[in-house]
């Protein structure tokens, strides 16, 4: 049974279950949604990410979550906290926040709403001293939301990842400390 980690006005943020992979594949794993995230994934890749997320939640009490729209009960995205695990990143192990929203719900403010709840979770219940978010310079919507959330660009944490196409390199990072978050609430 999934745990509800947070609720917002329009969303329930709940833990991932093994049975979620096919639904994620259907509604979130589209060329548009995955364009800046390494492209569409195979079902086995989604299942492996789910297993990793569930293990992280069991071990550390945080992970990525599904965004369920209260009005419809539909999966509309995912968001949450994990550890920076890219071996090329200079800050492996930091608390990393992230999100994605299905295409038919873009520009409705759902990512911002969810991420404000995730940041609250990160800084109050998880106890993260700071969080980072990773994207590419080409993902303008992503880094603009990072700035809207009060995050600060950290060029010293940028890195190149050959797994991504040239237009998505380098990977850029933004960060937010607990103190900065307190000042923006």
UniProtKB/TrEMBL annotation:
<keyword id="KW-0808">Transferase</keyword>
<dbReference type="GO" id="GO:0016747">
    <property type="term" value="F:acyltransferase activity, transferring groups other than amino-acyl groups"/>
</dbReference>
<dbReference type="InterPro" id="IPR000182">
    <property type="entry name" value="GNAT_dom"/>
</dbReference>
<dbReference type="InterPro" id="IPR016181">
    <property type="entry name" value="Acyl_CoA_acyltransferase"/>
</dbReference>
<feature type="domain" description="N-acetyltransferase">
    <location>
        <begin position="11"/>
        <end position="179"/>
    </location>
</feature>
<dbReference type="Pfam" id="PF13302">
    <property type="entry name" value="Acetyltransf_3"/>
</dbReference>
<protein>
    <submittedName>
        <fullName>N-acetyltransferase</fullName>
    </submittedName>
</protein>
<dbReference type="InterPro" id="IPR051531">
    <property type="entry name" value="N-acetyltransferase"/>
</dbReference>
């Amino acid at each position: 049974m999934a745990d509800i980690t947070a609720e917002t006005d329009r969303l329930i943020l709940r833990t991932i279950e093994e049975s979620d992979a096919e639904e994620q594949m259907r509604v979130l794993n589209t060329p548009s949604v995955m364009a800046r995230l390494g492209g569409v994934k195979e079902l086995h890749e989604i299942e492996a990410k789910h297993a990793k997320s569930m293990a992280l939640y069991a071990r550390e009490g945080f992970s990525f979550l599904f965004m369920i729209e209260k009005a419809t009960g539909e999966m509309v995205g995912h968001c949450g906290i994990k550890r920076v695990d890219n071996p090329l990143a200079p800050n492996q192990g930091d608390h990393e926040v992230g999100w994605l929203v299905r295409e038919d719900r873009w520009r409705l403010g759902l990512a911002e709403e969810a991420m404000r709840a995730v940041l609250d979770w990160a800084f109050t219940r998880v106890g993260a001293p700071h969080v980072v978010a990773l994207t590419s310079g080409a993902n303008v919507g992503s880094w603009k939301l990072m700035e809207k959330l009060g995050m600060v660009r950290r060029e010293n944490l940028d890195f190149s990842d050959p797994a991504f196409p040239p237009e998505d390199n380098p990977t850029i990072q933004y960060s937010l400390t607990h103190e900065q978050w307190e000042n923006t609430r």
